[in-house]
Amino acid sequence: MAAVCKLGQLILDYESAVKDLEKAARLRYNGWNQRYNIIRDYFESDEFKSTLQNRATLEFAASIFALSDLRAWLYAGKIQAKRKTTTDGESQRVDKKFGARWLQGLRIGCLHIQNTATRFATEIPHEVGEWVKKEHENFTHEFAATYLATVKERWRLREVENVPDEAVIYGHLFKQAGAVDTDEIFRIVQDAAKTIPTDQGLCSEPLEELPELPKDPEPTIKEGIRRDGRKVVVIAYVQNIAHIHT
Questions:
Q1: Do residues 237 and 243 make contact, with C-beta atoms less than 8 angstroms apart?
Q2: Which residues 6+ apart lie within 8 Å of 49 measured at CB?
Q3: Domain residues of the chain, as ranges?
Q4: Could you read off the pLDDT of 104-141 as tens digits, one per residue?
């Protein structure tokens, strides 16, 4: 009779422990939903959009500035080379030479710009989705560890003997947690990336040719020596100044 009572108590203990575990699973579910809502609200916020735009603008600006600098140098070089021509054929060869250099540099710069645009449009949303998955996993780990420490103490005080082992507890909580759906977060971040300005039309086909030299007024050309001893030629128009080191 005592053995039957003992067995009955063990069954009751286990059923009680399982009920505790099921309650814990519901608490974990509700806790993660609250955490997820905070995450989603942040990625939908103007703060995140502003951060994303600032980061992207900085990267785009670096590429655009490099192209602007290249164009200025080639433009100035073309001016100096044109001064040395004596025939239309020589002048055309100068145009072709500097035009080819510009288009080559422009294609490389546009490739960097397009790669940056692709990263913000697809790679960053994917990275954010992977981060959310990791957050979900970490949340479940932390919840399971906290729950296990708490429930063990409660079972000890109640002298509960027949309880699920740690593997069962972790397995149940992780099975109940399942896989987090990151599609919503991906779409939110992707939509935020659509508001980012890219190349301002600089890389639109057909690619922009190196500008023609102004015919009027004639440029002012000055030569000088820099403080580091290098010779510099300054070619200036009314609103355009370019430097060539020789």
A1: no
A2: 192, 195
A3: 2-196
A4: 888 888 888 889 888 998 999 999 999 999 998 888 88
